Amino acid sequence: xxxxxxxxxxxxxxxxxxxxxxxGCFALVAAVVRQVADEPSWWWMLVWFVGAxxxxxxxxxxxxxxxxxxxxxxxxxxxxxxxxTAPRVGVVDHxxxxxxxxxxxxxxxxxxxxxxxxxxxxxAAGRTTTDYLDRWLWVTAGxxxxxxxxxxxxxxxxxxxxxD
Length: 164
Hints:
Elements: H1 2-12, H2 16-36, H3 42-82, H4 92-108, H5 110-113, H6 118-125, H7 132-156
Helix pairs in contact: 4-7
């Protein structure tokens, strides 16, 4: 079995689960295209999708990659200047995850947070957007607090010897 997996990875370049996930994604895209094919505004959906990809790849990705590299290099420079060793629990991931969650929520709920979508929400659900900014700030604070608690718990956990 191991030889077959090794041969598969040598030929394909990744685990068989990668291929399964890829086939599943293509099946999902095919189902969506089938549903949208009769829609008269399918062209604008395609334009929006391609625009989102281009905006992500050319604008957003370089910005958050630069922020992440700055955080990692700043941590490295601080350790080098203070002659400290790397901590046994890294802090970068405990900042990355809540920041990504917060930004994702901001992007998804931006029309409600910025109150630009108030007429639509009022018409569709009979609700106003008055509390969305406060709720987003509370969720963001909760994400960072939860991450800090997990980080503190990981720092307090005794170090176990890893088998080589």
